Amino acid sequence: MASKFFFTLCLLWCLLLATAMASSDDGSFATRLNPKVLKLKKEKLTRFHLYWHDVVGGSNPTSVPVLPRLDNVTLFGLINMFDNPLTVGADPKSRLVGRSQGLYASTAQHEIGLLMAMNFAFTYGKYKGSSITILGRNPIVNHVREMPVVGGTGRFRFARGHALAKTQYFNATTLDAIVEYDIYVLHYY
Ligand SMILES: *[C@@H]1O[C@H](CO)[C@@H](O)[C@H](O)[C@H]1NC(C)=O
Ligand SMILES: *[C@@H]1O[C@H](CO)[C@@H](O)[C@H](O)[C@H]1NC(C)=O
Fold first, then answer.
1. Alpha helices in the chain (DSSP H)
2. Positive or negative CA dihedral for 47, 161, 85, 142?
3. Fewest CB atoms within 10 Å of the CB: 97, 166, 168, 172?
């Protein structure tokens, strides 16, 4: 009698286990993995020091308005699309290490404030082929603006961090600007 009861219990348990296994296999789109599978071991902290050249004027602009401003004081409504050089020095002729591609949109109605949405795509050295993505608020009249690094590709998979931007040069006639970027990135690769 006792062995029969035990056998039934065993059978029930086996059935339950089989159901549980089937449900984790069958039609499941999310699988829990060990981070080691993607070699996510030790996070490194790297600082990048770059200059971002927004060339709006002249015959070879790298930054072009795609929507005009609605307000002449705050520039509200303006959207520029850009493919700006990233160099190691403030001099536009210094070594090119990547390109910053994206757009800035003037989204503040009571000050001059941009929404930056851009990728820094590296084209030189160890980080060539990898990119980081910056998405954040940029009140350009402030001396230092902070923007989050929200992720990246290649060596910057699973990256996070922040960028500090300071305007080095601004030409009110051409609207050209050179902005210094200090970017702190935590990354694994
Ligand atoms: C902004 O200024 C320009 C001239 O620089 C003028 O033509 C335009 O009407 C102004 N726009 C507004 C919304 O005031
Ligand atoms: C702004 O750009 C114009 C046109 O290139 C140039 O003539 C002028 O000297 C520049 N101003 C400054 C402050 O660099």
1. 2-25
2. negative
3. 172
From the CA of 69, the nearest ligand is 1
- pTM of this prediction? 0.84
> In angstroms, rounded to a whole number, what is the distance separating the alpha carbons of residues 42 and 40?
6
CA distance 115 to 121: 19
DSSP label at residue 109 = S
Quickly state the pLDDT bin for 27 (edges 50, 70, 90): confident
Question: Both 129 and 80 in a single domain?
Answer: yes
Q: How many domains does the chain have?
A: 2
Euclidean distance between CA atoms 137 and 184, whole angstroms? 17
Rg (CA), the chain: 26
Domain hosting residue 96, numbered range:
40-188
One domain, residues 25 and 52: no
Count of Cβ atoms closer than 10 Å to residue 87 Cβ: 20
Q: Is 168 in the pocket of ligand 2 (CB under 6 A)?
A: no
Q: Measure 178 CA to ligand 2 centroid, in angstroms.
A: 13
Query: What spacing in Å lies between the alpha carbon of 175 and ligand 1's midpoint?
Result: 16
